Amino acid sequence: MPERSRVTRRKLMDAGRREFAEHGWITAKIRDIVAKAEQSNDSAINYHFGSRSGLLRAILRVGIEAMEEQRAADMEALGHEGLALDSDLGVVRLSGLVIRPLADVMRTPEGVDFVRIVGQIGPYTRVEQALRNPVMQDTILLSQVEVLVDAIGSSIGADYGRHRIHNFLIALIAILSARALSISAGKKKAMAENGGVEPTIDEINERLLANGELPHDAFVEEVVTTLSAGLATGTRAAVDRGRAQPPRPSA
Known about the structure:
This protein is mostly helical. Helix content is 73%, strand content 0%. The two termini are 38 Å apart. The C terminus is likely disordered.
């Protein structure tokens, strides 16, 4: 791809990410994205990405790839322990591998935008759809989620396991989205108070602390602890006792 096209695509993705995060990926105006990407032709998005949805997929893929380095480091650390990515790791360890890099992307403004966009679409996506989505393919994240799904399914059964994983992902996305919104609100307030100067993530976190919220590392560990415990709770017998009202199929 010519360098000029790469630069244009990057500008469109940067502008699209900001606009989708702030205004919603469905309602954000294409002309605003194009203008903020310093393009003069409203058809630039269709030319480079095929559609608004194509731009969204490209933005999500970049967000997932931003986590891959940390996920690769986590896999390397497992290898040093003589462990492999499989269900024998246990649900708590596996869920931590899924959660931490996703929470840690919020150390950057781009990551905050990414989480806000995921928050718009995540609750409406079933586990099976997420695993088949092209933006997930050939990623460490996909491998980790697949093993986590298998681990839960082997514990409480595939049908109930699918529902539990779905609820886990909804809860995770909701928690991270709320944090991302708090960070964005803190950024806006800081910029209004400081003549439009953009604050650092550390400065924003100081504001969160002043408002009684946890610092980033403590927040991440609390999310891991809370959601991992819920995900790991329950046995086949406990599920059997509650079969009077079986869940509807998730797909």
